Structures
1.
Amino acid sequence: MTDLSAFPIVTRWPASHPDRIQLYSAQTPNGVKVSIALEELGLPYEAHAVNIGKNESWTPEFLSLNPNGKIPAMIDPNGPGGKPIGLFESGAILLYLSDKTGRLVPADPIRRYETIQWVFFQMAFIGPMFGQVGFFHKFAGREIADKRPLERYRDESRRLIGVLETRLKGRNWIMDDDYTIADISMLGWVRNLIGFYEARELVGFDDFPDVAAWLERGLARPAVQRGLNIPARA
């Protein structure tokens, strides 16, 4: 029997299957990237819903695994050397899962680093900018009379979509014909921008046909469809 007692988070979200990867997450763009990757890889895992609306990610148990207080976080009971490992930050988790399985990242070292740079591009630019558009366009920020912050994030988000458009011209995926963690890192964010954040018209999304076609291809993947709904909402 695998012992996860060294991780205080299991006292709040007990593991029914402690021998499987334990995922602590919610259906946000950062959360679903990991569930999509796990579904694509076919790794056995147990998903625990963290209710961010009730601030569960700021509880001592969650913070013991992810001191940044954001979802997702993960425990792999069979980490390097067979020892358990706890991880936070979605990009790091994607890299870990790809290294663990030897999949979703090209084997060639040059293409591997190129893939990683696009994951970092999502984490440093796509995620933060799209999130700010959501705040100022759909959530509390829309009540602010001064629209300059919204305009700034709108323009920067449009620029970033343009970067993706340039990259995807003549390509099926970020890395040509290789579907990788770079695609997984961004699919949920682009989907949220034009769907949940209702910013399709705001950013002029229809001006970027290659990004739109890439998003459609990605969302058609069965593992993506499953992963978008994992974990089930608390």
2.
Amino acid sequence: MAALAWLLIPVFAVVGAAIWGSWASRNKTIGDVAELAGYARFRDAMERSRPSDPHPFADPASASALPEREAATAAATSGTG
């Protein structure tokens, strides 16, 4: 009976290795399709961003006052203010 127990250990190891091998070699590309599609949408969104807007997250009220501030700064530095 002890010999049978010692023979079952390698049999269980082989069965476990076969199960693990089939699981490890499964097709993993199913999840990659959605991830690659999300990355493509991200790239498209980055390409569509407005390059003329220097600060896309700036407050619109402070952005509208920007030319006035630049004019005031230029007048103050030139001494004609």
3.
Amino acid sequence: MILLKTERELALMRRAGRAVAITLEEIRMSVKPGITTGYLDGLAEKTLRKLGATPAFKGYQGFPAVICASINEEVVHGIPGPRKLKNGDIIKIDMGAVVEGYFGDAAITVPVGEASLEAAELIRVTEECLYKGIEQARVGKRLGDISHAVQRTAESHGYSVVRDYVGHGIGSRMHEDPPVPNYGRPSRGPLLRAGMTLAIEPMVNLGTYEVYVKEDQWTVVTRDGKLSAHFEHTVAITPEGPLILTVG
């Protein structure tokens, strides 16, 4: 069942989203060669709590950390720890926050030091995919319009979109209906209505869309070992158009 949010609920989600956005910016500014992903996780928790928000991921279905930190061929759900970032890496940071029982969820991909032209273009296009999807998050459109916009943008640059992991509805739970795939046909799926809130999150691969889960039972990696990028915003559908909730 797709739940429509009230103005009060949207305001709480906006507060959670703002905490996520500010924290992600703190992390972005801290990413450099030699920093560990565990350090970034600690920074995220400290920043979120200072902002009056609770980490949403820590303990969620057993996940052990505040952020997902996924490097290079790792797509999503990477567990932070002692691994040091190296010049030329790209790191995906995915995180969520809770404020008075309501969630915000967002992700960024950040180059470490000097990224290759290939990596920089993948990052640029993946972020473009996100905003092309958000453009379609309008009253009267269909969910498939969002999915198709993401897929069309990625594939027009020769990339592939991950199919095993998708975006989702969000609100008083981290994952609500409907699932939001990054592939699909336009004018299909649920009708978009004011009050719907969606976590739109393209995961775009340089090579094949196929992925697998590593032995830690969390980290998702590309099947061919090629790079992957990930961006995400929590978005409310309003009569005036899409409203991004995960901004500072």
